[in-house]
Amino acid sequence: MDSKTQIRELGKPDMTDAVSVLRKIASDAKAWPFVEARKLLQRLEKISGKDEVVFETGYGPSGLPHIGTFGEVVRTTMVRYAFEMMTGAKTRLICFSDDMDGFRKIPTNLPDPDQLIPYLDMPLTAVRDPFGKAPSFGDHNNSRLQAFLDSFGFDYEFVSSTRCYKAGDFDDAIRTVLDHYEAIMKIMLPTLGTERQITYSPFFPVCPDSGKVLQAKVVSRDVANDSITYVNPDTGLEVETKVTGGACKLQWKVDWAMRWLALGVDYEMSGKDLIDSVTQSSKITRALGGTPPVGISYELFLDANGEKISKSKGNGLTIDEWLRYGSPESLSLFMYNQPKRAKRLHFNVIPKTVDEYYQHRTKIADQDKAAQMENPVWHIHSGVPETAALPVTFTLLLNLAAVCLAEEPSVVWGYVSDYAPGVTAEAHPELDRLIGYAVNYYQDLVRPTKSYRLPTKAEGAHIAALLAAFDALADDAPAEDIQSAVYATGKAAGYENLREWFQCLYQVLLGQTEGPRMGSFFALYGREKTRLLLTDALAGKLANKTVAED
Question: Which residue of 47, 180, 192, 317 pairs with 196 in a disulfide if CB–CB is 3.0 to 4.6 A?
């Protein structure tokens, strides 16, 4: 079946000339969501009878949703929209919660964790909610997940593992697992250690007495009766149980394959740490007579030192922390960029990513359709958003907040209003939002580390020369002219590497090791304030202020 026939069968789109052109552009686009969409279309050419295409993301509700959860859902949404644009097909996104999984370990960040000891090994939806707000710990985290996804406006369908197992939604697929028991064992046993091979089974019985999800040895099975017989590890007794109706939970890799089959999943991405699970689950899906979904294996995040982020180490950046200092759109851009490459996730990447987002957003309105579909903003907004031009960059706002010691946004707004007359918070809510982020960033991350130093004798002479060059400029000199004066002063001072000159200005004037484009910053800060800043630096007042604060 060729791609055009597949498109007609999936979506039966109204192929007007305009739509045809957009579909052609999308089919040739090189952005990674379109590459993934074409992989998906190739998969669909191998199967038939689909009236909608199913995307899935998985969530383990033993903990709260985190920045990785956001990354997986937003990236999947990008692929979904690219596929819809390319084909016109009907799609849906399932956010699946594996809430029937056994509660194997008590998180240390819960209130009174000892109260949960009696619930170990029970399904997460049978564990008491330590917060006392929901019917279970699993339900509590599920509600947090849905609130989390809703806050970003994701279009999804929430599906609970517990509900599907107990309602019988998975029964037919589970019977298929029972029918192909030996084939699954041949796939899984070679991947296990000797000791685990002895007790391994695709089925985890749920003990009717204790309620625990048991890792038990299965000694026989009865396909006609939909049952297995297992050895209860707590009592040593043989017990026969149904595998349907929620009486058993499938082992992780088998469960994943069964879910793909039962829900008709066509696309699911996952982290690089799950590559082996994807491989084994795909083999099991084929053994069950299904076709595994396609998907990307994305890289995991690193901390500022290039080390793998670990919950136990606490060396990561939470989504709440990002959203205190940067916009959701900037976080989406971070997730969009190079998903197959390990990226450092730390506070310093936020300002750069925020500015990159607005650079892309400024460009997109003037780009042709093909270029727009290569623009990250198109994928972040599922199309072309309204223009949001800003008079200053986020990096400049950060440095302005730091220099004027901003305790609240109104302080920064005072400078911005002087720099760009007529620009107000009411008329420019995007800018107002960024100023709020900048103040938060300064108060939490810059102020505690801010440290001015005195200029050396030679540096003092160079700063005095800069002050003279600045005074020689016209009162309405633009940022580019001021920047040229800064450059010229550095060159005249004999700096072989002008970076050393700018580092001097950052350390002496701003109390930082890095900083903005100085011409733009001086223009925003204002003529008289800039002159006072240079004068105070020469007089040692900035460095003395640091000593006094210490």
Answer: 192
Across the beta sheet with 238-242, the strand order is 217-222, 227-231, 238-242
Dist CA 288 CA 294 (whole Å): 17
Tokens of 91: 């799609």
Q: How do the domains of the chain map onto residue ranges?
A: 3-169, 301-380, 394-449, 457-549
Q: Please state the CATH superfamily assignment of the domain spanning residues 3-169 in this structure.
A: HUPs (3.40.50.620)
Whether the CA torsion 166, 169, 175, 180 is positive or negative: it is negative
> Which of 262, 209, 271, 265 lies closest to 237, judged by CA?
209
Task: Using CB atoms within 10 Å of the CB of residue 321, give its burial: 0 to 12 exposed, 13 to 18 middle, 19+ buried.
Answer: middle
Dump pLDDT digits (tens) for 48-87. Answer: 778 899 999 999 888 878 888 899 999 999 999 999 999 9
In three-state secondary structure terms, 488 is helix
- H, E, C per residue of 280-297: HHHHHHHHCCCCCCECCE
| End-to-end C-alpha distance for the chain, whole angstroms | 73
- Whether residue 138 contacts residue 99, with contact meaning beta carbons closer than 8 Å, is answered with yes
Provide the CATH topology of domain 457-549. Answer: Arc Repressor Mutant, subunit A (1.10.10)
* Angle of CA points 109, 111, 115, to nearest 5°: 115
The model carries a pTM of: 0.89
Distance of CA 294 to CAs 79, 137, 205, 260, 550, Å? Answer: 11, 32, 30, 11, 57
